[in-house]
Write a sequence for this structure.
C-alpha cells in the first residue's frame, strides 16, 4: 500500500502542471489536484498494481475538471480565471527566449479548454494519442482533430502576436 502512495506522490508535479494549464489559476489548480489525490486515495484499490499511476490519476483529474466545468456552466459563473498578478511576468524579458516562451504560454491559455487539454496531454505530458484519448474519454480521431485545430489556433495567435510586436508606433 505504501508503494502505491509513494508512486502517487511522485506524480504530483505533473498533476499540478496539467491542472494549471486547464484552469489558469494557481489556487483553483491546487484545489483540483487535492480533489484528485483525495479521490485517488479513496479508490486506491481500483488502481491495478504494477501499472504506472500516471494515466489513472490524469483520468481522475480530467473527470473532476469536466464535472467542475459543468457545475460552473450551470451556475453561470466564469469558468476560467485570469492569471493572478503574482503569476504575471514582473520584469520584462531580457532574452528573446523568455519572451517567446511567455507568448507561447499565453497563446496556449487563449485556446479552448478541449483543445488545450488535448495538446497538453500529448505535447507536454508525453502521452500517446491512444492514452490521451482514453484519459480524456474521446475517440482517437476526435483527439487528433482537437490537436490539429489547437495547433492551427496556436499558430494563428502566435502569428498575430509576432505581427503586433513588429509594428512600431511613430509619433510626430
Amino acid at each position: 500500500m505504501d508503494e502505491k502512495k509513494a508512486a502517487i506522490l511522485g506524480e504530483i508535479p505533473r498533476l499540478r502542471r496539467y491542472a494549471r494549464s486547464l484552469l489558469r489559476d494557481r489556487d483553483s489548480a491546487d484545489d483540483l489536484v487535492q480533489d484528485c489525490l483525495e479521490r485517488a486515495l479513496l479508490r486506491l484499490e481500483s488502481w491495478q498494481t504494477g501499472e504506472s499511476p500516471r494515466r489513472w490519476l490524469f483520468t481522475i483529474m480530467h473527470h473532476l475538471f469536466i464535472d467542475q466545468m459543468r457545475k460552473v456552466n450551470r451556475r453561470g459563473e466564469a469558468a476560467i480565471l485570469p492569471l493572478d498578478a503574482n503569476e504575471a511576468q514582473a520584469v520584462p524579458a531580457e532574452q528573446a527566449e523568455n519572451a517567446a516562451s511567455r507568448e507561447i504560454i499565453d497563446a496556449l491559455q487563449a485556446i479552448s479548454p478541449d483543445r488545450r487539454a488535448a495538446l497538453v496531454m500529448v505535447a507536454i505530458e508525453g502521452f500517446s494519442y491512444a492514452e490521451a484519448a482514453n484519459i480524456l474519454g474521446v475517440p482517437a480521431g476526435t483527439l487528433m482533430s482537437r490537436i490539429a485545430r489547437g495547433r492551427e489556433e496556436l499558430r494563428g495567435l502566435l502569428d498575430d502576436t509576432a505581427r503586433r510586436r513588429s509594428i512600431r508606433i511613430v509619433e510626430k
Q: What stands out?
A: Helices lie at 2-10, 12-23, 26-42, 53-75, 96-110, 113-124, 129-136, 140-166.
